Amino acid sequence: MKKTILIALTAAAVVAGPALAGDKAEKMAAKFAKIDANADGSVSEAEFMAHKRASYAEKGEEMTAEKEAKAAGWFAKAAGEDGSLTLAEMTAAYKAGDSRRES
Ligand SMILES: [Ca+2]
After folding, report:
1. 17 CA to centre of ligand 1 in angstroms
2. Where exactly are the structural domains of the chain?
3. Which of 5, 8, 59, 84 has its CA 20 to 30 A from that of 40?
4. 79: phi > 0 → left, psi -120 to 50 → alpha, else beta; which?
């Protein structure tokens, strides 16, 4: 009897695992699409900064020079040398930042 429960729990975990990951990927894709204002599949620095400014404005906060520099730094690091951010790059950058998330 115990074994049956264990098997059922294991099966539930196996099913729930990828489903949760998929949900996260979906949310990231939705967020990316929102930032990608001209919907060309990549986020430029201008698009990213506009998004940041808008999200601070939404919270009633001002985007200070410090916040702007921080956002620009994050973008430069995440986007890499080509200066445009893809969904894969954004996902990777968020994953990397999960353990040391700031603001
Ligand atoms: Ca774009």
Report:
1. 32
2. 2-100
3. 59
4. alpha
Class of domain 2-100: mainly alpha
Per residue of the chain (103 residues), what is the pLDDT tens digit? 666 656 565 555 555 556 667 888 999 999 999 999 999 999 999 999 999 999 999 999 999 999 999 999 999 999 999 999 999 999 999 998 875 655 4
* CB-proximal residues (5 Å) to ion ligand 1: 36, 38, 40
Task: Dig out the tokens for 77 from the structure.
Answer: 């690091």
* Ligand 1 center from residue 28 Cα (angstroms): 15
Dihedrals phi, psi of 56, to nearest 5 degrees? -70, -40
**Residue 97 pLDDT:** 82
For residues 85 and 40, the answer to whether their CB atoms sit within 8 Å is no
Taking Cα atoms as reference points, which of 37, 25, 38 lies closest to residue 90?
25
